[in-house]
Amino acid sequence: QEEKQQQQQQEQEEETAQPDGPPRSADSPSDSSPGKVQQLMEENARLQHELTDVKRRVLQAAKRKIAEHAGAIKDLEAKLVDASRQAAEASSLQDELQSLKASTVELDSLRSEKTEMARQLASQRKEIESAQALLSEYKTFGSQKEAAAQAACSKLEAELKRMQVDREMELSSLEAKLREKELECESLNVQLSKAQKAADDAQRACASAASSSGSELQAARAEAETAKAEAQALSKTLEAERTKLSRALEEAKKRMAKASKGQHAAEVAAAEARGKYEAERGSLKGEIMQAAAATEVARKETARVDAELRDYRARAQALLRAKDGELRTAREAAAAAAANEASASQVASLQTELQEVRDALEKALEAAREAEERAELQLSEAMEAHESAQAALKARVEYFQRAATEAGREAEDRRHKCETLEARLLHHQNSNQDAVLELEARVKHAEAQVAEVQAELSRREGDATAAKAEMEALLEAKDEEVLQLVRKYGMLMEQMKELEQHMAGASAPLGSTSTSAPDAAVQLQQQQRAQEQQAGQQGWAGGTVWVGEREQQPQQQQQQQQQQQGEEQAAEGAAGGNRHQPSSSQALVDTQVPGIGLEANDGSTSGQQQQQPRSQEDDEAGILGSLIGRDPPVGLAAAAAATGEWSEGLAGATAGSGADAAAAHAAAYVHLSQQLAEAKARTRMLEAEFHELEKEVALREEMEVALKESVRDLQRALERQDKAHNYVNLEYLKNTMLTLYRTGEAEALLPVFSHILSFSREEERACKVNLERLKQVRVCALLSLLCVCVYVCPAVQHFCLYHQGLNPRGQAVAKPWHP
């Protein structure tokens, strides 16, 4: 409609503009009349009025449409806002539902933990009650033991006092007896001195009598010698008895030492078996009875010694009285009958009797000393036994007192723990709602973080997969392009070989041009073969790039110049004036030098070769060598250019059809060489792009691995952070640690610790390996520690090792051994 209105407006404007057109000539007649002009003006006014009316209506319609569009847009925006609000409300409702579900799960876990804590509290209360009952039992047992120990101590003290009184009385009696024995010994010594005086008198009498009769003297001497021999025998027997007594004394001392060692071992055994009070009391009673028996034996021994001393004293007194009477009678007989023959025999008998009396006195004194020593030894043994028994009783009393104090301390600790547990339970009951709210907030925060991390991870994974797919497609395309280039390179090489063959065939008809042309062609072929062999030896056949061409060019140029001068001289000497042939020879010789033939060619070929530097050819040759495993000969384009120049020289030297074909083949050869150089450059560029893409792929893979590792670390850190702020988890960890230290089952509790502390697979595997290593030496190490801290008898050690399947050396055995 707008276009129609515009067209109508343009028509009206044209109609209105027609009267105002260019003025007609004055001589042209007027075709319009004033009425027609007036009609046209009215028509124009009417049309203008209609145009304004149409414009107004169009504007009104446009405004109405714009208002309708604006209203529709506003309605759509309102609907969109409502839809977005409803979507936000739905998402918030879903989040609230998830949070409510999580809170319900958390509340269930808290309820279960609460029940678990209540159960633990009940068990702790039961343990405290059992500990209190055990403490009361310990207290009653300790009081009973203390009372029994006090009674035993009082009994032992009374017995000790009684034994001390008895020992003092025995000592006093023994001292009195010793004083009596000393007095008796003194009296016996006096009597002995008197007897010695009497013997001296008798000897003098015997000597006086011996002077009277020699036979009697000899008999008296013989009797005296026999008496001396008897005295020596008696002395030997006395010494033997003394040695026997000393040996018996040493044996008694050894027995006492053994008895003391046995008593010490018994005391150690009593200290080890501290709970066997009745057996110890029986042993103490036995020791007391042994001491009483020893004292009784000592008393009996002292009584026996006293009886023996009294007997010895009575016999000595009777003997002394008898001897006194005999001495008196002997004196009377000696005084009455001094010259009697029996005086010598009487003197000898008196001497023997005197010696017997002396021996008897010595025996009595020795027996008294031995009895006194035995009594003192028995008394010291009894005192030591009493002191050891008293010390053992004191140690036992101290042990029971220590056990009572430890039991009281343990009961106090249990009561304190119970109070702390009750306080914790009350605190948890009071702060349960706050903990639930805090847990909900932390769960929401953690879920948001996890969602962000998962979104980032999914985005990175999508980018990585897209980049990987793009890289794979690009690599496939590059591989296909490289294969095409390699195939093209092979085709070009085949075409080059064909061109070389054609050029060799085309150069054959040129032998008749001059005498030096065949030699130059042969020399060119030989140089080409030598160059090919040298290229195969140095770089092409070995798969390496020819890099020494640039260094060999000056030497080759010098050789070429020398060869050129020699050929010119030969040509001048042979032909004599032919100036064109040396130029041909010169061209042929110039083509044999690689890298310089194109410089003598036309401007186009020289310009193309100058655009490709020799280093680029070397790089291209190296890239193609790395792709197909065989490097092309260096200076291929230069050789092609030299061949082209040679063909042009031949064309200038000869005008035959063979020369034209050779020139065409050389031009095709140059074109193929240029295509080969372009293919090399393209291949090198593709190879560089391929390496860059490989590096980018490796970098993307490393970034992906690092991102995954960082995501795992972040998740593990979030889990540890959530678990670090959880007080219930710490309590659970503490209970698990207590269970580990009580039972020692590290292998069974490893999954629990792995769940609590969020162990990785490598850490859990390392823990299992270390547990397997420590499993063999765990029992031996624990037993060694137990043996160091507390004395454990070998039977208990063997029993523990037997139940672990180990021998006493800590080695595993297939069959159980019997300790």
Draw up the topology in text.
Elements: H1 2-17, H2 34-212, H3 214-272, H4 277-336, H5 343-430, H6 432-507, H7 517-538, H8 549-575, H9 580-591, H10 603-610, H11 614-628, H12 636-653, H13 657-724, H14 727-743, H15 746-757, H16 761-775, H17 778-789, H18 794-803
Describe the structure.
The chain has helices at 2-17, 34-212, 214-272, 277-336, 343-430, 432-507, 517-538, 549-575, 580-591, 603-610, 614-628, 636-653, 657-724, 727-743, 746-757, 761-775, 778-789, 794-803. The protein is mainly alpha-helical and 819 residues long. Among the domains are: 171-401, no CATH class; 470-706, no CATH class; 727-803, no CATH class. The model is unreliable at 19-31, 510-518, 535-554, 571-657, 788-792 and 815-819 (pLDDT under 50).
Structure at a glance:
This protein has helices at residues 2-17, 34-212, 214-272, 277-336, 343-430, 432-507, 517-538, 549-575, 580-591, 603-610, 614-628, 636-653, 657-724, 727-743, 746-757, 761-775, 778-789, 794-803. With 819 residues, the chain is mainly alpha-helical.
